[in-house]
Write the structure tokens for this entry.
Amino acid sequence: MQTEMPFFEGPEDALREAVRAIGGPKKVGPMLWPDKTPDAAARLLQDCLNAGRSEKLDLSQVLFILRAARDAGFHAAFQFIGADVGYEVRPVTREEEVDRITSVIETTSAQLATAIATLQRLQTARRVA
């Protein structure tokens, strides 16, 4: 796992390094554009990661690259983006994510139970009146 954040000149540079960590443009390009030939997809990805070109990735493609980089143990691109907008970013372990989701389920289950009880009470009161 990567521990130090390298210096990037801009977001395109950070994403280029993320793509490299995933396996390079020839691997990532076809994942983004499966309808293109591998070489055409790789060229398009390189163009999208060149700040001087008009081709750009859309947000879902950026998120795909960041997720794949995370899975490859490369966190610097997302940390760079976070720092650029004023956030400190750290990777979340699978256990932490499971705990968070479990907590959400427990909270919403309790809210659902309360809502059902309230609805039943209201429906019963309407029948009596």
Observations:
- The chain has a mean pLDDT of 93.
